[in-house]
From TrEMBL:
The keyword Magnesium does not apply. It is found in: Cell outer membrane. Its main location: membrane. Keywords: Cell outer membrane, Membrane, Receptor. This is TonB-dependent receptor family protein. SUPFAM superfamilies: Carboxypeptidase regulatory domain-like, Porins.
Amino acid sequence: MDYKKTFFFSLFFLCVTIMSSQDNKYEIIGKVIDVNNNTSIEGANIFIINLKKNLVVHKTKSDSAGNFQISLDKGNYNISIGHVDYEVTLMPIDFSKFKNNSLNLNDIFLEPIKINELDEVVIVSKDFRIENRNNKRIYHIGNTLKDVAGSMSNLLSYIPSVSVDIDGTVQLRGKEPIVQINGRNSNLSKSEALQMLPSDMIKRIEVITRPSVREGETEPIINIITDRKRRGTIGGVNFAIGLPSTIKGGLHLALNKEKINGYGLYGINNQNNIPSSKEESIRTVDNNVETVETETNDNNTSSTNQFGELQYEYVPNDKSELAGNVSVFNSNNMLSIKGERNMFSENFEQIDQLNDTENKLFSISTETEFEHQFNSEKEQLKIELEYEFESRKNSEMFLESSLSDGDLNTNSFDRLRSNEIELKTRYDWTLNNEGYFSLGYRFDLSTLNQEQFFSSDVNNISAENNIDFTQTDNTIYADYSNVYKKIYYNIGFRFVNTERKLIDEDTNESSKKSFSNLLPQINLEYEYGDSNEISLNYYSLLRQPRLNYLNSFNTSVDLQRIRVGNSELKPQSSQTIELELFNEFENSSISTTFSTNFVKDIIQNVSVFDTENNITVTRPENIGKSTTFGIDFSYSLNSPKWLNTIVKLNGRYGNISGGTIDDDFYRLNSSITNIVRLKSYKLELSWFFSPKNKINFQTFQSSNQYFKLGLSRRVLKNRGNLVLSVLDPFNSARIIQNIDGQNFDYRSVIRPNQRRVFLSLFWRFSVKSRFRNTDKQVKEKGILQ
């Protein structure tokens, strides 16, 4: 009986407690309105902030009519109501105003953000918060990731769908992206520039895997938004030293006034005697005689790279804006190779080799952009003018010494100068709250001149080449987007006419090609729940062959490995269908993309062994068509609270067919990054792995893996960040390729830059701003503090 009494008493007490707690629940309702046009705001963020703990304890979003409803317990709170495009309203919650445990805030009016009026607003964000916005994925990077990354290049390796190899080359879903700074094209696309600038200056990263027709670009875009919009002067400086001998430094500075904003970047990177190595072997059989040739090379690289950019914005009134930038990149690279070549056949022969190469690059690009909004505020004219000049110089000396032939010299010189002009004009109409229509025209003109010289003691060869290349693209495009219920849809097309002309000034021979293509695009996105999205996309793209693919003149100083171009190449056209799924949870997020890609006139290098001259000739060809199935998977987890884990997987499987070719190919890359917070320190442990891949119908790449370690700590009264990073600590990175030809087998083993150690310091010198400490373990961050 005592047990029964105790049980029923406990049950009664539990029911009373539950009923009491339900009675103590409070509810707030309201509607979020645009103050300028009295329209409802969908997707506004409503946060309940516990003032004692400085935590977000409840959150929700407004629906398509701007309405919201949120429940809470009694306590000491503020309510924050805001949107990415609007100012934030912050107000205390007064429980004395509740009636029947309910409070109606009625209409809450938000003002659109005026960027040049922002002052000293510091946002504390989750270490990895993702936002979806109509064809664009925005990654808000918290201090933990920025601290331990050290450089822009390393920070990009944490982003889903983005891969950064051991040399710093950035790819987005297997394609070379356009890298922008604050929405403008930049020489930052050069991987060397990304490695010399600090990650601390980044505010967020925008990734557009499928640019809309309105954006005027056909390649995927990575847009790096810097910390530059607070009023007054802000900036930072970084310095790094590394082993082997490396010195890097950078500066960024922003000046914001009422009508004019300016932003500048500068970076420099100097490296001396960075070692790497390469081993090659080729086996051939001719008339039942097997010949094996091997080469072993030890490489040393020295380089000096500099990057600079200046951006400006002038806002004379509320209707117009003039903006632009100037971007400069300069590099001087020296590569020295010492090796030997061994011939195993009926006799044995050893040949010593020396190879010295100097590469110089200078690039300057400018962009001017003018926007004007007409009185109706529903029509806008945008005009962009871009110009880029680039000069590349390559000189190479190759020496072979053998007992039978003595010394043989080969020299080459290659200079390329290019001018590119791009004019874009676009007229936009806002049809309703969500509808948007654009009509535009784009003109692209590229002129290139390539001068080449080649001489060799072998058969006393001496040759010159002077090529002029001109390509003109005229594009007309239209784009329409709108929202139906919760479905965002975007429909657009491009009509592109291309005229290509290649002239050999030495022989007066010319090759002219003309192409016209209609490229449609359809995007559908559906957002459900708080942070979940599914999208279905179709788009068609063109890949125009570059001059180095078209010029048939050979400048390879290694006469056993010859590469030539093909002036008859057609553009490679592709059609892609993608299904994207994105889910964000309290402590994690998952992003998955399934894709199917159909390619016509696929361009790939084809290697053939010439048994008569004992040389391998590689030449690009339109080998046929391909069908590819791909998956891109990213998983980010912040649990337990002291650990961030980022898992990335990118895989492709396809078939190439055409002529005598009918073969499969496959490729897989994966990485796991763990970032551990240890009181005042942050530790990175990353592993990059690729299993055996079949790159094309005749090239295999063996498995490869390497590691990255990082350790960071805030210093200088929280105004600075000290980072120690180690790339490939175990010297495990290998790039092993095998080519199975019709009459030869080729194998190469490349060991890239081995074990790199960097110690870098970043210091923010703005008087008004300092790093905000986010080491405090909280349930949710991401609101105005």
